[in-house]
Design goal:
It is a single chain. This protein has 358 residues and is an alpha/beta fold. It has 2 domains: 48 residues, no CATH class; 302 residues, Aldolase class I (TIM Barrel, Alpha-Beta Barrel), CATH 3.20.20.70. 24% of the residues lie in helices and 24% in strands. The strands form 5 sheets. Strands 16-15-14-13-12-11-9-8-20 form a 9-stranded mixed sheet. A 3-stranded antiparallel sheet has the order 1-6-5, with no helix packed on it. β3 and β4 form a beta hairpin. α2 crosses α3. The longest helix is centred in the middle third of the chain and has 15 residues.
């Protein structure tokens, strides 16, 4: 494992290798790495130097990703590697995503070993998370193949910052994704993430309209940076118009971290205000995260308003769907991925179980 041939690159006329995975298009001389730090030029080829290596494995509730309409209450085996292709000043996993120390990747696991662990633990899915799976796409895609062969589904938790060809290959193997829509302005992406907005919008539209991958969106609200009424209204109108009202949208609270330690934590009132704006713009399923908010954690029927799934943080407290995904009050079908219950609903809860691979 470790250095593994990378996809999506080309040799330039000047002798440099260009990585074509994401819009950065890093151009590398011998021995150089891209901004992500994990895609590296080795002789006359590009390699992924974290293939088969992880910063850690845990079994989590699926709601932690967050995914509220993808097998609610189920467990998911979560793992990440190191590095990232964005440079978000507010990153809340910065010790992993901005790591330049590969010793953090203390566990090794083949795709087949991960699939076997999922089966043994009884997890419904595996999640590529903690840092962005875009930069370890080859590894994630191989894990997805092994897990699909074992009847386990795949979840990407990502910023969606990638080019079209890898996007198509990657999402052909994903069953669900939560994509961070970090802001709805180019200035925010440029100044706080060293990126661009449009490639993320392209990813969202592609997943929604050209794949069978279930899509949910998360926006982390940072006081004074991306939480104005005007920006939130624009964001919600775009989601409703371009993706449709049934795509779940999560507004989560920021806590001071990494390079924004001087910014105050997001008040509960801010995420509740954002939720109100999204609902007023016609979105059906809008959630609040990183806060205790009963209304913001509840999935309601978009036809009659019946509370279908009630949550406290990452724990499902009440589950009232019938016939897999129907409202017991009016019969309206809930958008998402669900299954008929065999007896009483038993959720995984909010526990977190670390796993060690030998």
């Amino acid at each position: 494992m470790n250095n593994h041939p990378a996809h999506w690159w080309q040799m330039l006329d000047d002798g440099r290798i260009q990585c074509d995975l994401c819009p950065r298009e890093c151009k590398l001389h011998a021995g150089q790495r891209g901004l992500c730090f994990v895609r590296e030029r080795e002789a006359d080829r590009l390699v992924l130097n974290t293939y088969g290596r992880s910063s850690g494995f845990c079994v989590d509730p699926i709601e932690k990703k967050p995914l509220n309409h993808f097998h609610p209450g189920s467990s998911v085996l979560s793992f990440g590697t190191a590095g990232c292709n964005l440079s978000c000043k507010f990153c809340q996993n910065w010790d992993i995503s901005k790591s330049r120390d590969t010793d953090k990747l203390g566990q090794q696991a083949s795709p087949e070993a991960i699939a076997q662990a999922c089966v043994q633990m009884g997890t419904k899915s595996v999640a590529y998370t903690y840092n962005d799976p875009v930069i370890f796409a080859e590894y994630a895609m191989d894990v997805a193949d092994a897990c699909h062969a074992a009847g386990v589904q795949s979840v990407a938790v990502t910023a969606g910052y990638m080019h079209d060809a890898p996007r198509r290959a990657f999402y052909a193997k994903m069953d669900a994704a939560n994509v961070d829509l970090k802001s709805f302005t180019d200035a925010f992406y440029r100044d706080l993430c060293a990126g661009e907005l449009q490639p993320v919008l392209d990813t969202l539209a592609y997943i929604r309209h050209e794949t069978n991958c279930w899509l949910e969106i998360t926006t982390l609200l940072i006081p004074g940076a991306n939480d104005s009424d005007a920006e939130l209204t624009s964001l919600c109108r775009w989601v409703a118009r371009e993706l449709g009202p049934t795509v779940p949208l999560h507004f989560t609270a920021f806590h001071p971290d990494y390079k924004l330690r001087g910014v105050l934590a997001t008040p509960l009132e801010t995420v509740q205000r954002a939720r109100h704006i999204a609902l007023s713009e016609g979105l059906h399923h809008v959630y609040t995260g990183n806060v205790h908010d009963s209304a913001g954690g509840t999935t309601n029927c978009c036809a009659c308003g019946t509370a279908l799934i009630e949550r406290d943080w990452h724990e499902v407290r009440q589950y009232r769907l019938v016939d897999a995904n129907a409202c017991p009050g009016c019969g309206e079908r809930l958008a998402g991925r669900f299954e008929a219950l065999d007896g009483v609903f038993k959720g995984f809860g909010r526990q977190r179980i670390p796993i060690a691979f030998q």
